[in-house]
From TrEMBL, chain A:
One of its GO terms (cellular component) is cell outer membrane. Belongs to the TonB-dependent receptor family. It is a multi-pass membrane protein. InterPro entries: Beta-barrel_TonB, Beta-barrel_TonB_sf, CarboxyPept-like_regulatory, Plug_dom, Plug_dom_sf, TonB-dep_rcpt-like. PROSITE patterns: TONB_DEPENDENT_REC_3. It is found in: Cell outer membrane. This is TonB-dependent receptor. Keywords: Cell outer membrane, Membrane, Receptor, TonB box, Transmembrane, Transmembrane beta strand, Transport. GO terms for biological process: siderophore transmembrane transport. GO terms for molecular function: siderophore uptake transmembrane transporter activity.
UniProtKB/TrEMBL annotation, chain B:
It comes from the Bacteria. This is Type 1 periplasmic binding fold superfamily protein. It comes from Algoriphagus lacus. PROSITE patterns: PROKAR_LIPOPROTEIN.
Length: 757, 199
């Protein structure tokens, strides 16, 4: 070996060896692994992306060793010829029998070349007490589509509801997500990390993942003796909200690899206050629970998980209008007619929703390169919506749905030692929706059964700073629906099938710069409400008419990202374009329908080609140990390219910036931090041809936050104090459906306590 | 490759779970409890001492399907005589379910109230006063007086039933309260009847 290296003497010694070091288990990059070339006695340490560079090498054959604590050493020879070389190393964990070695957690890292942003740690701490939708507003490019202050749905790059997907610990959340006023049935407290993928990810996650995917992940279960309890206690002045969450995480000391977690939360809030009045009947209560039990050995991983979500939400009294003139009157009035005081009481109209999710998951390492995965999930969703009704009917829900979903995933992962990794699998979704009789209202959507089967394959090639990936998927979906309209039975059998595919790449230009690009197709079959709606929507004083002949939406989304990360600066820039064929939307027909109750607008579901494009920017800069600044912004343009007009409820341009100052002791300045931030939202100038009221004007909100950390021996105590909307500014958000009826929430003062022991 | 022997175990597990599928319930026809199909205005002519004179006349608004899409309600023209007093009662029914909704309104007197609007009351053509036997202001029974010299023979009477309103709201005691929506609540009925005044 030594000889071969010497033989190259006299040649130009300017070759470079680049490489990337990853965990064999889950492709997570390994930071601080040691790479050594025996012959030259030179080496390098991998950075946080797992990358390393060794320069100034002569052509020849070298022996390379890669070392990292708890992992088997890699020893390999590399032949450097005329050009520089890049190589990927995957490190396998040492056998469990060795004492003192921690088993690597089995949580999967998201492997994608699309733009990905995660909320965790401090950002998660600041978001505690908020709904999932509200929390995710911290991610550039994510906004909310809300119904008052208690119901908010995340919007990724202008798409929401059934055009994005939410995964609760790896299981696609199947609630009644078609409804604009149906919030995701998930407790953000169960997660220690929430990840947003902003690309078309149908191949990986299945139909409907068109605009993006949200992964709500609980922490990895401990695999060795360890106990951690965490308590959150929060209070807010607006609505006198109180929120308590507790979780306990433990690892067994008797059985190595066995771990568990239990978590629960309760939340109660009363009427929300806009700057000048209370919003009548806007209280809410929520209680949630989740638990998991897991076992990990070097070969086998198994997990059982259960989560329960339960909420009762008051809906603004005056948003439930009798007819079009009621609606016009309240819009003209500019605020609700019903005057209210503060109360925790929740009356009709209200929603009562519960969601059970149980899953079992197992993986088995067939050998160091192949892994078999099986996951089964069961979900039961109950949704009851109550309206103001006469007499005994008032205590009966006017919408009462039970949705049962089974999901099954079976797939094989492989990670070849060097350059290749990928997975092949199948995915089955089986669903049944039933209207519980006795509502006294013809159901808005029919009873139905749905079956969706999909097969997919994807592969990734990794060579040093370059990653390339691609995948294909085929899905078949069958829906059979039945319902009575009056005494007439209507049935429909529909099927849909689709191919989807994606290609993507990542290039690490330098340790600081990375460029990603991803082009993916996605599809979404029409929803039952879009197919079969035929009835009155009280909140919009509208009659909505579905169309059983709608076809699937097909999209092509191209997402490009540029990330710069140095010691002081972090910049993420994402540009995207999304072409959607047969985009389904609710279109006002311009006709009105007259009944004994008065007049209503008539809306119908139509399809047209749509084009969405825009960019997200997020950056931060560390001026000094103490001073830090950040900026986030997003711009979305969405057009109906057939009719050459705009769709309703597309987020307007917005940005959010702030500075924070740390003023703890010089040894630990981060123990005290004060943050001042400012949210700027432009008026939506690209309005649809018809809207009940014009888009509200631009607004600016100012917030201030103070965070203090106490270290009490091994325990940590965090105190957070926030004032949102300091100046009690009266504003209306275009993306809030209740902007027609009321101003948004006024000033809110929050106290957030967190204790970890 | 020995380990691939585990594969059948996973496939069997997958198959077992796969057949645990569920079915939706068979749909059942729903009784439309909230729907109003018939609104009948009964006019009983009264003499000077409030005794009934002659046979009462009725005018109705009918929408046999309730609030379904498609059908338009049929609204009759109200014919009344110049200079006469009437007792006007309102009967509201759901003919699909054979339900007497007037009785429910009476039961929930605190939450319901009729308002009477339109040119019939603004153009010095007629006046109306609540006259419910219970003494509560509901509007299921009223006293109506037609002017002896109306400016015109043609007018409109808009009948609005509000639900869940604040009955103590200033002005809400007036059956012709124009700004009834300010008292909160929502509209259950909003029907405009043409009115013809005969000699």
């Amino acid at each position: 070996m030594l000889l071969s290296a010497q033989m190259s003497f006299g040649q130009k010694c300017d070759l470079i060896l680049r490489g990337k070091i990853l965990h064999q288990e889950n492709d997570d990059p390994i930071e601080a692994a040691y790479v050594w070339i025996l012959e030259t006695r030179t080496g390098a340490v991998s950075d946080q992306n797992g990358n390393f560079v060794i320069r100034g090498l002569c052509p020849g054959t070298y022996t390379i060793t890669v070392q990292f604590l708890g992992h088997k050493e890699i020893r390999q020879s590399v032949n450097l010829t005329g050009s520089s070389t890049a190589q990927t190393f995957r490190m396998e964990e040492e056998s469990l029998d060795l004492t003192g070695v921690e088993v690597h957690g089995h949580r999967e890292a998201v492997q994608t070349t699309t733009a990905v942003t995660s909320l965790y740690g401090e950002a998660m701490l600041q978001a505690r007490g908020e709904s999932l939708g509200e929390s995710l507003k911290r991610v550039a490019g994510v906004t909310t589509f809300s119904t008052g202050n208690t119901i908010s749905k995340p919007v990724i790059h202008g798409l929401h509801s059934n055009r994005i997907m939410i995964l609760n610990n790896g299981i696609r959340l199947e609630g009644q997500q078609w409804g604009a006023e149906h919030a995701p049935e998930i407790d953000p407290f169960l997660a220690d990390e929430i990840t947003v993928i902003k690309g078309a990810e149908t191949v990986r996650f299945g139909p409907e993942a068109m605009g993006g995917v949200i992964l709500v992940n609980p922490p990895a279960l401990p695999t060795s003796k360890k106990h951690l309890t965490e308590i959150h206690l929060l209070g807010a002045s607006n609505g006198y909200m109180g929120n308590l969450s507790a979780s306990h995480l433990g690892g067994s000391d008797k059985i190595k690899g066995l771990g568990y977690r239990v978590q629960g939360s309760v939340k109660r809030a009363g009427n929300v206050k806009s700057p000048n009045y209370y919003q009548a009947n806007t209280g809410m209560s929520e209680y949630n629970f989740s638990s998991s039990l897991g076992y990990s050995s070097d070969r086998l991983g198994a997990e059982a998980y259960y989560s329960f979500f339960n909420t009762e939400l008051g809906i603004l009294r005056d948003s439930h209008t009798g007819n079009l003139s009621d609606l016009i009157n309240i819009i003209e009035n500019g605020e609700p007619f019903t005057k209210a005081d503060f109360t925790y009481e929740i009356n009709n109209p209200k929603q009562v929703v519960s969601h059970h999710l149980a899953k079992i998951k197992s993986h088995y390492h067939l050998n160091p390169e192949w892994k078999l995965n099986l996951q089964y999930g069961f979900q039961l969703n109950n949704r009851q919506e109550f309206d103001r009704r006469r007499g005994e009917l008032n205590s009966r829900p006017s919408l009462d749905l039970e949705l049962i979903t089974n999901t099954l995933d079976l797939f094989v992962d492989h990670t070849i030692k060097t350059n290749w990794s990928g997975s092949i699998g199948l995915n089955v979704i089986q669903q049944a929706n039933s209207n519980i009789p006795g509502t006294g209202v013809t159901p808005l959507i029919p009873n139905y059964e749905m079956f969706n089967g999909g097969i997919f394959a994807m592969e990734k090639y990794l060579k040093g700073p370059l990653e390339l990936e691609g995948g294909v998927r085929y899905d078949y979906r069958q829906v059979s629906a039945a319902r009575y309209v009056g005494n007439e039975l209507q049935t429909a059998d529909l099927d849909y099938q689709n191919f989807s595919a994606f290609v993507g790449g990542l290039y690490q230009l330098s340790p600081y710069f990375a460029f990603t690009s991803n082009l993916g197709t996605a599809w979404r079959p029409p929803n039952v409400n879009e197919l079969f709606s035929q009835g009155l929507h009280h909140g919009a004083a509208a009659v909505e008419i579905g169309d059983p002949d709608l076809v699937s939406e097909n999209s092509l989304k191209w997402v490009n990202g540029l990330e710069y990360e140095s010691e002081k600066a972090l910049v993420e820039f994402t540009v995207y374009a999304n072409q959607i064929k047969n985009y389904i939307y609710l279109n006002p027909t311009g006709e009105t329908f007259v009944s004994l109750r008065g007049t209503f607008n008539v809306y119908e579901y139509l399809q047209a080609d749509a084009f969405f494009y825009g960019f997200d920017l997020s950056g931060s800069y560390t001026f000094s140990d103490r001073l830090n600044g950040y900026l986030k912004g997003s711009i979305i343009r969405a057009k109906n390219t057939e009719a050459d007009n705009y769709f309703p409820f597309i987020p307007s341009d917005r940005m959010d910036w702030g500075v924070s100052y740390a003023f703890g002791k010089s040894s630990n300045p981060e123990s005290d931090r004060i943050t001042f931030s400012n949210v700027l939202v432009a008026q939506q100038k690209r309005e649809p041809d018809f809207d009940l009221a014009p888009a509200p004007p631009a607004y600016a909100l100012f917030n201030i936050g103070y965070q203090k950390k106490f270290q009490l021996a091994k325990n940590q105590f965090n105190v957070g104090f926030q004032i949102n909307n300091i100046f009690n500014t009266e504003y209306r958000e275009y993306m809030n459906r209740f902007r027609y009826f009321t101003a948004d929430m006024g000033r809110n003062i929050l106290l957030k306590l967190n204790y970890q022991f | 490759m020995q380990n691939f022997r585990k594969l059948p175990v996973y496939l069997v597990a997958a198959f077992t779970l796969g057949i645990v599928s569920c079915e939706s319930d068979d749909p059942t026809p729903e009784n439309e409890g909230e729907v109003i199909t018939n609104v009948v205005l009964n006019f009983q002519e009264l003499d000077a001492s409030n005794n009934p004179v002659g046979t009462p006349v009725s005018f109705s608004a009918i929408d046999p399907e309730g609030i379904e899409v498609g059908a338009t309600p049929t609204i009759q023209t109200i014919n009344l005589k110049k200079g006469k007093n009437y007792r006007m009662t309102i009967a509201v029914t759901n003919s699909i379910e054979g339900e007497d909704i007037s009785a429910e309104i009476l039961e929930e007197a605190d939450e319901h109230q009729f308002f009477f609007l339109g040119t019939a009351f603004t153009g010095n053509i007629m006046t109306i006063a609540y006259n419910d036997p219970s003494g509560k202001l509901i509007g299921l029974q009223n006293r109506l007086a037609v002017s002896s010299s109306p400016g015109t023979n043609n007018a409109q009477m808009r009948v609005v039933l509000r639900h869940d309103l604040d009955k103590n709201f200033p002005g809400a005691t007036n059956p012709n309260f124009q700004n009834f929506e300010q008292a909160g609540g929502e509209t259950d009925l909003d029907i405009t009847f043409p009115v013809v005044i005969n000699n």
